[in-house]
Amino acid sequence: MNPNNMNSKRTSYVHLHPFLRWAGGKKWLVRRINDTLDINSYSSYHEPFVGGGAMLFHLQPKKAYISDMNEQLMLTYLNIKDHIDDVIALIDGYGIGEAAYYDVRKIRTNNPIEKAAQFIYLNQMSYNGIYRVNSAGDYNVPWGKRINYQFDFDNLRKVSKYLKHVRIESMDFEGCLKRIRKNALVFLDPPYTHSKIENGFIQYNQKTFTLDDQKRLSIMIDKIKSRGAFYILTNADHVVIREVFDKGDRVIPITRISGIGGKNAQRGQYEECIFTNTNITL
User: Fold this and answer.
1) Is residue 256 part of a domain?
2) In a domain? residue 162
3) Alpha-carbon distances of 239 from 89, 114, 198, 208, 220, rounded to whole Å
4) Which residues are CB-contacts of 127 (< 8 A; sequence separation ≥ 6)?
5) DSSP 3-state assignment of 184?
6) Distance CA 71, CA 68 (A)
7) For 212, what's the count of Cα atoms within 13 Å in the CB-facing half-sphere?
8) pLDDT higher for 259 or 147?
9) Are residues 257 and 194 in the same domain?
10) Which one has a higher pLDDT value, 36 or 69?
11) pTM for the full model?
């Protein structure tokens, strides 16, 4: 969808971008979606795996519901929505550099505003933007050597203003069904990865999003369709996944270049699929 075309339809459109680096983010998909996805033609928008929110911030639906199982992530969204000045003041006071990073990483607090500021800071300053905690629940990603990084507080304030109109919750993806009605659009971006090994997809995801979770998601899509609503699902292009989500709807294969960094990261072309009952083209 071209933002310039969107401006002609929605004079209030303001360019926003994700405030977090997020594994599996959909910036690449946002760049491919064209004007066949008119967000104004849907009664509401639902995103139960919101992550970094690339699609949400691109489409900016007027009536939106977002959620995720990551409680810390959703706490951060809520505090950007309700306490943006306090969050920015804390981030701005942390400082830049290795010593500052590890000082912030050691902070233990029950204050939700401080937790949100810490989450954003560590996400942007850590190695490769990885979200990882140890068995005690402590963030343990090393410093990313981002010496000259500048936080985009202007974008954060714009995001906060937009989020005033968004319902934010922390819950399992099936919880979004309680709000889905006829003509709603549901964007589904579950955790998934890729492998050239025949069964690598299933083996890799057992600890994050299992095959049983994929099957639960497939059943949820049946319920979405039964309510006269629409869905867009992103997933790996794997034979098992195609079988799980075979509903006679459109399947759009996509080949993209991985931008994942890191010493042991897998780079190269990845095969993914879009499953949908909408008329979008990519």
Assistant:
1) yes
2) no
3) 49, 44, 9, 19, 20
4) 141, 142, 143, 144, 145, 262
5) coil
6) 7
7) 3
8) 147
9) yes
10) 69
11) 0.89
